[in-house]
Design a protein that fits this description.
Elements: H1 2-13, H2 16-40, H3 43-50, H4 54-84, H5 88-91, H6 98-128, H7 140-163, H8 169-180, H9 192-198, H10 202-215, H11 223-255
Helix pairs in contact: 1-6, 2-4, 2-6, 4-6, 4-7, 4-8, 4-10, 7-10, 7-11, 10-11
Length: about 260
């Protein structure tokens, strides 16, 4: 696990330009949100259940979605990169659980996401001034559930990669979360023709509980229901992902397709 963590960390962070790009990207993300909030105000946004601060609402959503989806994409990226350079079959002879290698890679990208989240908080402090929000320790519970859920999904998508070509699962999932899970706007503004889909995403409940505990926004369902749905999704995703990954591992090894697609 530590070896996979170190490999991914060095591959993604050894160049200084990466850190410069993160700071520039973070500023470019914050500036339009600040300008839109000043141009249009936040009265209607607050009336829709988003709270009085549009900037903080959007910042929390994007920081959390970035941190949650990184473990998912890291599993696929780790397997894909190992496959493209021809070392995937060698990794499969390592006397260690396969999921442990994926977990090490996921933790490396999670640290990346936390660093970027820290940059957003620092820049927001410098640009917008100090926040008066108080964070409940309970807020870490839905965040942990969200991280676990997407790591489990990463194993699901990674297991599919063992026997098939790489596909755009990360892009599809991230796009759906941005559009339907209330990442940057309350789902209450969506028409019912598509809003019902929002209730099918576990991340909707993760964000709903987290924002309530951090920003004090109203919840779409009672807080215990938010936490129960998020927790159940995390358990199902992790155990289901491990089981599916082990099954795909055995099938791919039996068919001899590990490392076939380069």
């Amino acid at each position: 696990m530590l070896a996979a963590f170190t490999q991914m960390w060095r591959e993604h962070n050894r160049f200084r330009i990466v850190w410069v790009a993160r700071m520039v990207t973070t500023f470019l993300f914050l500036a339009p949100i600040l300008l839109m909030s000043r141009a249009y105000g936040s009265e209607g946004f607050a009336a829709s259940g988003g709270g009085p601060d549009f900037v903080t609402f959007a910042a929390v959503g994007l920081v959390v979605i970035n941190a949650a989806t990184r473990p998912m994409s890291a599993t696929m990226a780790y397997l894909s990169n190992a496959n493209s350079v021809g070392i995937l079959p060698a990794l499969w002879t390592t006397p260690a659980p396969r999921w442990a290698l994926c977990l090490g890679a996921s933790l490396a990208t999670l640290v990346d996401a936390l660093v970027e989240g820290g940059l957003i908080i620092v820049l927001a402090f410098l640009i917008f001034g100090p926040s008066t929000q108080s964070v409940s320790l309970l807020a870490f519970v839905p965040l942990a559930f969200g991280l676990a859920t997407f790591w489990g999904l990463g194993l699901v998508f990674g297991s599919l990669f063992l026997a098939t070509r790489s596909w755009a699962a990360e892009t599809v999932v991230t796009g759906l979360l941005l559009a339907l899970a209330g990442t940057v706007f309350p789902i209450t503004i969506l028409p019912w023709s598509v809003r019902w889909l929002s209730y099918a995403f576990p991340h909707t409940y993760v964000l709903d509980a987290l924002r309530h505990l951090v920003l004090g926004t109203p919840t779409i369902v009672p807080l215990p229901v938010d936490l129960a749905v998020a927790g159940a999704s995390a358990v199902l995703a992790v155990f289901g992902g491990i089981l599916m990954f082990r099954r795909a591992d055995r099938t791919a090894a039996r068919r001899g397709v590990i490392g076939l697609y380069t």
